[in-house]
């Protein structure tokens, strides 16, 4: 994310300088973003189920640098009021956070809803609104319930229906106060690193197979959630649904000898997720 943020900031700054304007325009949105596994902690408290990152962090030595885990992290599950105080102090007006699927649904299925998880997110959203901070909510930021992982995870086509039920539940529970939804954060990372190289949870090494099955089902799940919101919730909640895409750009070191390698990297790391018309067109018809 840092190169993208840097490019955007540089672009905005250069435009401001070119216009001889050292002030941000009226209505400029200052935001901050987090993800549940990286800040919440409380990995097994108040009915939360095990997630795929919990499993790999606890069973694979040094899977995360220095043998770290998300067991405590920033302890935002207990310190969220202090987090909001800091956001206010920074004059942040928009805050993007993710819902932990296993905190809301311990097994990933709607058979069991964890009320403590519901209360946590409702209290967080209510407090953000009271502080005049607009919540932007990500439904999936890499932490899949371990029970679903053991059923095949994202390469399993059945996950589209599991995710659809989860998304619909979130719209029902929080949609009156949330007007900006992100279905997925950086699906390329989940699929390429989770089911290709195996350097992210669930640490499945299936290059050229698992990662493509994953991205196919992620895009189907995104489309399903979008249409659920569009048909059942948009008319009464008046919100928006999108997806967060990360990307990278590659240039050949030597235009003669490295152009093919550069293009292969672009095709795999950039164009497969940002220009996947052959999948997106079919989904959104």
From TrEMBL:
<dbReference type="InterPro" id="IPR017853">
    <property type="entry name" value="GH"/>
</dbReference>
<dbReference type="InterPro" id="IPR001360">
    <property type="entry name" value="Glyco_hydro_1"/>
</dbReference>
<feature type="signal peptide">
    <location>
        <begin position="1"/>
        <end position="18"/>
    </location>
</feature>
<dbReference type="GO" id="GO:0008422">
    <property type="term" value="F:beta-glucosidase activity"/>
</dbReference>
<comment type="similarity">
    <text>Belongs to the glycosyl hydrolase 1 family.</text>
</comment>
<dbReference type="InterPro" id="IPR033132">
    <property type="entry name" value="GH_1_N_CS"/>
</dbReference>
<protein>
    <recommendedName>
        <fullName>Myrosinase 1</fullName>
    </recommendedName>
</protein>
<dbReference type="Pfam" id="PF00232">
    <property type="entry name" value="Glyco_hydro_1"/>
</dbReference>
<keyword id="KW-0326">Glycosidase</keyword>
<keyword id="KW-0378">Hydrolase</keyword>
<keyword id="KW-0732">Signal</keyword>
<dbReference type="GO" id="GO:0005975">
    <property type="term" value="P:carbohydrate metabolic process"/>
</dbReference>
């Amino acid at each position: 994310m840092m190169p993208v943020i840097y490019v955007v900031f540089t672009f905005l700054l250069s435009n401001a300088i070119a216009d001889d304007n050292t002030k941000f325009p009226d209505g400029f949105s200052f935001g901050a973003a987090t993800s549940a596994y990286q800040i919440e902690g409380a990995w097994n408290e108040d009915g939360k189920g095990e997630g795929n990152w919990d499993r790999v962090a606890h069973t694979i030595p040094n899977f995360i640098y220095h043998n770290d885990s998300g067991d405590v992290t920033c302890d935002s599950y207990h310190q969220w009021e202090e987090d909001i105080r800091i956001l206010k102090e920074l004059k942040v007006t928009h805050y993007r956070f993710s819902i932990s699927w296993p905190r809301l649904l311990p097994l990933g299925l709607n058979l069991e809803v964890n009320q403590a998880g519901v209360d946590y997110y409702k209290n967080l959203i209510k407090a953000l609104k009271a502080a005049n901070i607009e919540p932007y909510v990500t439904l999936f930021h890499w932490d899949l319930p371990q029970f679903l992982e053991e059923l095949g995870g994202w390469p399993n086509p059945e996950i589209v229906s599991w995710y659809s039920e989860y998304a619909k539940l979130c719209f029902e529970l929080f949609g009156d106060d949330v007007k900006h939804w992100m279905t997925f954060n950086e699906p390329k990372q989940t699929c390429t690193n989770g089911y290709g190289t195996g350097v992210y949870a669930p640490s499945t090494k299936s290059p050229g197979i698992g990662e493509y099955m994953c991205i196919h089902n992620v895009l189907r799940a995104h489309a399903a959630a979008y249409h659920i919101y569009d048909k059942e919730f948009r008319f009464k909640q008046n919100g928006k649904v999108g997806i967060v895409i990360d990307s990278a750009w590659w240039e050949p070191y030597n235009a003669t000898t490295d152009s093919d390698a550069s293009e292969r990297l672009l095709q795999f790391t950039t164009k497969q997720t940002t220009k996947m018309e052959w999948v997106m067109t079919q989904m959104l018809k």
